[in-house]
Amino acid sequence: MVDGNSGKYFTTGEFAKLCNVKKQTLIHYDEIGLFSPDIKNEKGYRYYSYQQFDVFSVITLLKEVKMPLKEIKWFLTNRSPIELINLFKEKSIELEKKIDNLYRIQKIIETKISLTEKAIRIDYSQITLEFQEEEQLFLSDSILNSSDADFLRSTSKFIDYCNRNKFYTGFPIGAMINKEKIVQGDHDNYSYLYTKVMDNHASSFTYVKPKGQYIVAYHKGSYKSISETYEKIVNFMQSQNLNLKTFSYEEYMLDEVSVKGYENYLTKIMVEVG
């Protein structure tokens, strides 16, 4: 530090170390008129006061929220209490949105980890009868008996709506098949696509998957052979003297994100019975 008429000052190197930046950064900021030292002597040496640390911290903060140097310079040139309040309120709102988005991304990652960990531990040769709690589902338009073109159009509309409303939370897009199609063996004739949604998204547009008894089975391999697994489900249902209720629900547990090739896909099938 260097003594001066008004107190003690840091050299450029000392102040750069204090601010955790390179000396060249301070020199550049001075050259563009963004942040200049309190003192610059006749030899060109720069000296900074400790009071300037707060100003530099604000510059660093605004850079962290992606504010261009040109805009930071304008703010510092025209700064006032009102300008600071308005700017920081605006940045606070932006940060809140980013935090919400990062939290959503974290939840997606955690969900994917959980589903994949369960998938690699599952004995997918077993068929079980399980009690399941109700779930909120957001459904596509009806795709029952739809043409290929209608199916693609409805799927695009569904995915676009889910993306715009941030419904996606890491759970796979599922498919529902009504009991008539199950009995007929028409297992690729879906009634709806769906995605699970959080309670705060519940609305008149959501469908409640009922709580109750479900036959749970797992299909390993391509969807082309899924009828084989449905035959096993029907046989299990008959052996337990159970009846189909409304729908079956299909969800990928392992897909192209985690495995290569359709033969390695793992599909969870849940059939409501009573």
Which helices and strands, and how do they pair?
Elements: E1 2-4, E2 7-11, H1 12-19, H2 23-31, E3 39-40, E4 46-48, H3 52-64, H4 69-77, H5 81-121, E5 128-132, E6 135-139, H6 148-164, E7 174-178, H7 179-184, E8 192-196, E9 206-209, E10 212-220, H8 226-239, E11 244-254, E12 266-273
Antiparallel strand pairs: 1-2, 2-4, 3-4, 5-10, 6-8, 6-9, 7-8, 7-11, 10-12, 11-12
Helix pairs in contact: 1-2
Give a description of the structure:
The chain is of the alpha+beta class. The chain folds into 2 domains: 2-79, Multidrug-efflux Transporter Regulator, Chain: A, Domain 2; 107-273, Alpha-Beta Barrel (Multidrug-efflux Transporter 1 Regulator Bmrr, Chain A), CATH 3.20.80. It has 8 helices and 12 strands. The chain has helices at 12-19, 23-31, 52-64, 69-77, 81-121, 148-164, 179-184, 226-239; strands at 2-4, 7-11, 39-40, 46-48, 128-132, 135-139, 174-178, 192-196, 206-209, 212-220, 244-254, 266-273. An 8-stranded antiparallel β-sheet has the order 5-10-12-11-7-8-6-9. A hairpin with a 5-residue loop joins strand 3 and strand 4 (46-48). Helix 1 packs across helix 2 (23-31). It is elongated, with a radius of gyration of 30 Å.
SS elements, strand count: 12
* General shape: elongated
**CATH domain topology of the largest domain:** Multidrug-efflux Transporter 1 Regulator Bmrr, Chain A
Main sheet attributes: strand count, strand direction, barrel closure: 8 strands, antiparallel
Task: State the name of the first-level CATH class of the largest domain.
Answer: Alpha Beta
Q: What is the domain total for the residues?
A: 2
The termini sit apart by 82 Å
CATH superfamily of the largest domain: Regulatory factor, effector binding domain
Radius of gyration: 30 Å
Number of helical segments with 4 or more residues = 8
Helix-strand pattern: EEHHEEHHHEEHEHEEEHEE
Mean pLDDT: 91
Q: Judging by the overall fold, what is the CATH architecture of the largest domain?
A: Alpha-Beta Barrel
Spatial sequence of strands, sheet with the most strands: 5-10-12-11-7-8-6-9
Report helical residue fraction.
Answer: 40-55%
Output the structural class: alpha+beta
Strand content: 15-25%
Low-confidence stretches: none
